[in-house]
Amino acid sequence: MGSRMVGRTVIITGGASGIGLGIAKGLAAEGANVVIADLDLKSAETAAEAITKSGGHAIAAHVDVTKRLSVVAGIELAVKTFGKLDCYFNNAGFNKPMKFLDVTEENFNTIMSVNALAVFVGTQEAAKQFIRQGSGGKVVNTASIAGRTGFSSFAPYSASKAAVISMTQATARALAEHKITVNAFSPGVVATPLWTQLDKDLEAIGEGDSGFDSMAGGILVGRAAEPEDIVPTALYLASSDSDYVTGQTMAIDGGMILV
Questions:
Q1: Domain architecture of the chain: domains with CATH
Q2: pTM value?
């Protein structure tokens, strides 16, 4: 195990699977106290138990990121258990592809609520805790290549992730005086349960040819990412190594989107 995160407490929303779980394992291996905050408490508990058995420090928290009081409760549990909060990952998110002309207000609003509004609320509540502590802190947001370039069947998702990038910049400006940094990373095609479901959803709307394999074919490094590929950047943004970095969105996409 490493030591770059020893003594640091980290909350990761959507931490029970996919990218979030990869980050939880990676940071725990570096000594972090990890709070796996997820809507699926059973999966979060299973993940926390696995980390603990491996010698790490982790607990599960049932958190609905669309409800402010639930977010607050997750932060309170982290502080009660580990004494403080040092980093908050706004990672929870989802997508439900629909052809553009078929997108409903419900589809749009639900995606924006989970992927964008929840990032705003999570950042607010984490910042309030950091300010109470008086020692600064870090917020790390999960953006996406879809926030850099729009995809026709992912219009609400693309809009939500563009919002994450803009909020990362705005909140970095707003919170700098409190010694709080806010950054994001922008994954491309990552082999996760989310993408498995996306392929099924795209097939259902007759766009199976634009799924995982098709998009992975455009990656310059020649393969899709695994959650483990995200960990080094997440670790950098959560650790003291990035103290002089704020308001940035770092691409981890194998060269899919060049801007």
A1: 9-252 (3.40.50.720)
A2: 0.94
